[in-house]
Amino acid sequence: MKDHDMNDFATRVTFARAWNTYAPNGQSICNDTLALEFLPREHRLGAATHEGRMKMNSILTPLELALIDWVAVRTRVMDEFVLNALNSGVRQLVILGAGYDSRAYRLVTPDQGVTVFEVDRPAMQDIKRNKIKEALGPAPEHVVFVPLDFQEANIVKDLSDKGFQLGIATAYLWEGVSFFLDSYAVEKTLVFMAETAGTGSALAFDYVDEGVIHGTYSDPETATLVRHAKKTGEAFKFGINPEELPEFMEKHGLKATANNSAPQWLKIYGKDCDGLAPAPFFHVAHGIKP
């Protein structure tokens, strides 16, 4: 994806988080209290005001709503993962493809002694820095920006140059990225996590069922999603058979500890969110370095 496409994608994901955060009638499953700060005014009004939500509800398609619900569920799962990791004593949090991720500012506090490394393309990070400065002032000292391109970078070197420590307890968060990469980049990133992780390290990442990539997934809306992704310059390139996920992670030096589809995660975290219908071909997996 080009840099302007990356920004557009990050905005859409952040809108989805804001949309669900301000959802009425018990339909909110995530609570991204900073999402609005990264959005243009019209997006803020569309997500957080009654009039704006009424207008957006008349515009959004069922597929778009399913994707918004998916982002909301994924956000909750990833938030819980980060909070659990912090409670377990990790010293570093690496957010790969950070976009407008706000966890470094709403879940991590300076007194916890945790360094957050936000990894993303330089142009995306420049935009985010400006938005953070407008909303919160200068970025807190515990946040370190690491500019790189996943397809081309030496992740270990680029992180180490910014103060990343090898072999200590680290949490790795890889959200909304894997399906846009080729298999080589995905495998290289997983190996990076396994080789740099210390005792007590954990990771969370999301992926799509490989049937979406091969055109064999049975859900009737999948073909529409794939066409839409290609049209917007965000074509899916990589997927995993959910049944083969544990073996896939083990092959790359990691042990799977959770592997659920979006509806399965919804049952775990959103028992009262009956109005949500996230796209079922998305999954979130957790793992550890054995």
Question: Features of this protein?
Answer:
290 residues, 12 helices, single chain, seven-stranded mixed beta sheet, disordered N terminus, globular, alpha/beta
Beta-strand percentage range: 5-15%
Query: Helix-strand pattern, N to C?
Result: HHHHEHEHEHEHEHHHEHE
Oligomer classification: single chain
Unreliable spans: 1-6
Indicate the structural class: alpha/beta
**Gyration radius, in Å:** 18 Å
| Helical content band | 40-55%
Residue-averaged pLDDT? 89
In one word, what is the shape? Answer: globular
Write down how many β-strands occur, each being a DSSP E stretch of 2 or more residues.
Answer: 7
Give the CA-CA distance, first to last residue. Answer: 34 Å
How would you characterize this protein structure?
With 290 residues, the protein is α/β, with parallel strands linked by helices. It has twelve helices and seven strands. The chain has helices at 3-21, 41-48, 50-59, 62-88, 103-106, 122-136, 155-161, 183-196, 210-214, 222-231, 245-251, 262-269; strands at 92-96, 115-120, 143-147, 170-174, 202-208, 255-261, 282-288. A seven-stranded mixed beta sheet has the order 3-2-1-4-5-7-6, sandwiched between helices. β4, α8 and β5 form a beta-alpha-beta unit. α4 packs across α12 (262-269). The protein is globular, with a radius of gyration of 18 Å. It starts with a helix and ends with a strand. Residues 1-6 have low confidence and may be disordered.
